Amino acid sequence: MGTSSAHGEKEKIKRQTMLKQRNRNVLAILTFELTIGPATFEWIPIWLRHVHTAIWVPILLYVGIGVVLIWLLTEVTFRDNRLDTRLLTAFDGVFHRRWLRWVVHGTLLITSVVYGSMVLRISMNLIKYIALPSTPMISIACLAMLIPVQLFRGGLDSVLRYEITLFWPTTVIGVLMLLLCFEVSDMSNLLPLWPVSWSDIIDLLPQWIYLCWGVLLLTMYLPIFRSAGADKRSVLWMAILGFLGAVLLQTLNVFVVLADFGAYEGASLNWPVFEAIRIQHYGRWTVLFLLPVLTAVSSAINLSTYAAYRLVAYYLRSRTALATIGLCSVVVLLSLRPPSMRTVLSAYVAVIDAATVFLGALLTVIALTMAFRGRVS
Fold it and tell me: What is the count of structural domains for the chain?
């Protein structure tokens, strides 16, 4: 009896410690960072090219789909309320056939690696454009992957501490510098608000679907907070709060680009947000603004690659240094393989879009099945 009581007390203390490190505020920050991605906003020129100043319409559609995805993920994750049920992904508590899990795990693994590689390649192009034009790409890629290699050996808690510690300084500095861009803005560039052609918005669908991939990466992280004893309602609302916070920051960046350049000039620039920073005070802030962006890039690479690492470690039944180095090497090789950014934004985004549509449709089917039949077998 004494041994059983001591064991129960030990488990209670362990669960309380986990809850402190994996509480709802951490979940909101994690959702924000997953949604905001690398914060390079390379998608803004594409959106402006399609819909011009009516960009608020696809942004609202994106908000609606993101909130629905978070709600579906939360419902699926908390379908079984027993805390002793350990889930690797949100789908594991629903699918009981091994091949179905393999399909979902394979999709998440491949797409997480592709997404991490895409973020790494975008960041390398940005660094070469802003600060280090003569630096070999492989040097930048290897330096960028030193952080995940060290963090993954420390486990999930190391990753979470890294993300949380840098969140507020990075966000505050970035937002303040963006607000200063309105010094040379022209609010008439925001007009007209009404879409000229609704077909252009429909044509934009493949471009904004891939933004939802960050939300779907919660598939790998929501079970962690569930296992720590977090309440379903608080998980749902804090995840939605983190998502909406990220959308507000994305909208602020779009607003800055439109106010400073207008829709047509903004659509012709490769990095319009950085160009908006560059025209302030003779470009002296551009490198400074690169620091919070690189922090966001690091977070996006960490979170996507760690999701893939958890799957690899699960099937290898161990967390070895060889698995960490091997996975990071694959990310580096995939980031260096495409000859141009055009290839990255076509081939890699196509993979991410396909996975997003597949997992989103799967979530919808599961939710409907849970509502009408109670279980997916």
Answer: 1
Count CA atoms within 13 Å of residue 357 on its CB side.
11
Q: What is the DSSP string of 171-210?
A: HHHHHHHHHGGGGG--GGGG---S-S-HHHHHHTHHHHHG
* Cβ neighbours of 195 (radius 10 Å): 17
CA 181, 184, 186: angle at the middle one, nearest 5?
105
Write the pLDDT tens digit of every residue in 185-206: 888 888 888 887 778 888 888 7
**Is it true that the peptide bond before 192 is cis, omega within 30 degrees of 0?**
yes
Overall size of the chain counted in residues: 377
Q: Is residue 337 part of a domain?
A: yes
Are the beta carbons of 301 and 121 closer than 8 angstroms? no
CATH of the domain at 329: 1.20.1740.10
Angle, helix 232-268 to helix 56-77, in steps of 10 degrees: 150
The continuous run of DSSP H or E covering 43 comes out as none
The C-alpha atoms of residue 136 and residue 148 are separated, in whole angstroms, by 20
Backbone angles phi, psi at 340, to 5 degrees: -150, 165
- Asked if the structure places residue 273 within a domain, the reply is yes
Amino acid at 353: D
Q: Is 39 helix (H, G, I), strand (E, B) or coil?
A: coil
* Predicted structure pTM score: 0.91
Percent pLDDT > 90 in the chain is 60
Cα–Cα dist 319/152, whole Å = 9
Side-chain-facing half-sphere of 152: CA atoms under 13 Å = 30
How far CA 29 is from CA of 68, 291, 352, 371, in Å, comes to: 19, 19, 23, 30
User: Does residue 10 sit within a domain?
Assistant: no
Structural domain boundaries, residue 249: 22-372
Residue type, 30: L
d(CA 300, CA 293): 11
Which of these, 304, 283, 250, 265, lies nearest to 115 by C-alpha position? 304
| pLDDT tens digits along 226-244 | 888 888 999 999 999 999 9
Give the number of other CB atoms < 10 A from CB of residue 237.
Answer: 16
Residue 222, in any domain of the structure? yes
